[in-house]
Amino acid sequence: MTTSGPDGGVERAPRSLFVLGMAPLRRLLAPRCVVCDIAPGDPLCAGCAQDFFAAQVPRCAVCALRLPAPAQPGDRCGRCLSAPPHFDATIALADYAPPVDRMIAALKFGGRLPLASAFGALLAGAAQRLLSGADAICPVPLAFERQAERGFNQAHEIARRMAAACDRPLRGDILLRTRHTAAQMDLALAERRRNVRGAFVACGELADMHIAVIDDVMTSGSTLDEIATTLKRAGAVRVTNLVVARTA
Predict the structure, then answer these.
(1) CATH number at residue 182
(2) Which of 96, 99, 110, 122 is most exposed by smallest CB count within 10 Å?
(3) How far is CA 71 from CA 58, 65, 105, 126, 219, in A?
(4) Is residue 44 domain-resident?
């Protein structure tokens, strides 16, 4: 913006006036929170992040299943006591329930990749102490057919943001999916275990490694248990799951 000076020359308006004039437009065009659709957020506002991802609920230390109160840190559910899985611990941000389930669907099926960045940042914060001792961050690999259909692997996108936030190596090369499997949520528990048996292979030297495995949703834990079995057979000494949501 310019004005005429007293001598007929051209003077520029102070830049601060231009910046102030643009501020209302920036607020109007700022992306809104994907949950409340009211407050600014890219993709979550601070209020929704606090309301839906910061609740301290009692969970099993191994599989992150919600436990009845009162429960102490380190408590395990009955299933993990009677038949311990091959993974050592699980951290879940939230229950798989509204609106978190819709957010995950928006990422997986709607391509809302900024949600992966938000989930990754939240997981990095929730597991900061644990991740400092992890040797690798490993996303659950997606079947080739499913990744070709979506164009991305949501677990890899979440893990990528986590790795950057906690300065740990992202290792998508140490675990491969060898075959396509049916969707786990459509199967009974015994069928889920059979469905993923032998579906993964570990690559490279994993001796004495602590590996953090990243996924969006944990249901029965059959997939993550098969992955932990595969990684430990290859030499890993500890496997910790980090998931956005846990089903009941």
Answers:
(1) 3.40.50
(2) 110
(3) 6, 12, 31, 19, 21
(4) no
64-112: pLDDT as tens digits: 999 998 888 899 999 999 999 999 999 999 999 998 999 999 999 999 8
Residue 155 to residue 147: CA distance in whole angstroms: 11
What pLDDT, on a 0 to 100 scale, did the predictor assign at position 5? 53
Q: What DSSP character marks residue 68? A: P
CB atoms within 10 A of CB 230: 22
**Structural domain of 235:** 56-246
**Rounded CA separation 33/229 (Å):** 39
Q: Are 125 and 198 in contact (CB under 8 A)?
A: no
pLDDT digits (tens, 9 = 90+) for 198-248: 889 999 889 999 999 999 999 989 999 999 999 999 999 999 999 999 998
